[in-house]
Amino acid sequence: MNPTSIYDVFKNCAEAIDNDVLIERENRNDKEFHFQNWFKDRLQSTSYNSEDGGRNSYPDFRLVQLTEGYEVKGLAYPGRELNYDCNSQIPTGLHNGRTIYYVFGRYPARPDGNQYPVLDFVLCHGDFLNADHEYVHKNKSVRGFGTYGDIMIRDRKMYVAPTPFGLAEGLAHYKTLILPEAYQVNENFQRVGTLVRTETENVIVKYSFDLRNNELIAETCPNPNAGKQHRFYAYRLASDSNQTVSMRSAIEYEVSGDEDIE
Question: Strand pairing partners for 103?
Fold first, then answer.
């Protein structure tokens, strides 16, 4: 294994939650960066220097000494928690040669002030969400739409991916680390579950949209790795709960906005 920051970062976050280090939002209109700022403080309290990715960039934080990055997703509870919008970047465990970890934290949806706790916390390797390292996202456009042929249609893809809460049972109310089986942990951690994800039989390689009837049609091809299993282990600090983590029997989808999910 190459050197990694993941153990120190997770430990800092878990201990901060245990010590009641609260999220602090600037005001009630701060609906995006409050949990991200909480994580930033935890990251900066480690020995690893990091750089902010900036708005609409990926990942949110990039380490300087190591080729690792962290993407942060805050989830209001109660609320949508089984999946999330990925905007213009599909989740992955490797991006531009950098290992990517995903940070999920739930917090009260309607706090009574500008300080409130992290309710539970999951830090996972991006491959747990999607193990494809080859796909490159690009936005495209076509011109010639409309009565006069001078309207442009932009194909700006939005991806909806499951969160760890949508993939596994036993994560709610705990602090959990999910890593590929190749990672080696020390005595500060206990294993609390084995999570196996199996590659699908067919993969989408193309889609088309019929403007006459608003139908979106996907085209698939056989996955050369169909049936391949990716094994991950769930960990917690040795001093924490040993509540078991296991895969859900089926993935549920929550609809955001006015789209239909089939």
Answer: 72, 123
CA 70 to chain centre: 9
Are 30 and 71 in contact by the 8 Å Cβ rule? The answer is no
Secondary element (H or E) of residue 74: strand 68-77
Look at phi and psi of residue 10 and say left if phi exceeds 0, alpha if psi is from -120 to 50, else beta: alpha
> Considering the entire predicted model, what is its pTM?
0.92
Contacts of the segment 211-216: beta carbons below 8 A, 24+ positions apart:
211/145
CA dist 230 and 28 (Å) reads 41
* Residue stretches of the chain with pLDDT short of 50: 261-262
Q: What angle do CA 202, 80, 153 make, to 5 degrees?
A: 60
Determine the 3-state secondary structure of 170 from DSSP: coil
**Given this model, what pLDDT does residue 198 score?**
96
Token couple for 127: 């491959």
